[in-house]
Fold this sequence. Notes:
The protein has strands at 9-12, 16-19, 27-29, 35-37, 46-53, 61-68. By secondary structure, it is mainly beta.
Amino acid sequence: MTDLYHYITSYVVHGQIIYGPAYSGRETVYSNASLLIQNVTQEDAGSYTLHIIKRGDGTGGVTGYFTVTLYCE
């Protein structure tokens, strides 16, 4: 992890959840590697990186990117 200041949360295999300094209480990470962000605001808009690491069997990780965009009508 290169930017710990913006780190939100992690899910560890045995159900342990680790929260980072960017955690606001609106984010939920699940054991199936999905992430739910509730009550998204304009301040949440931007690019995010999701990094999944499977440990214990020699498998590497995968990195995904997503963008939050809000449209106001």
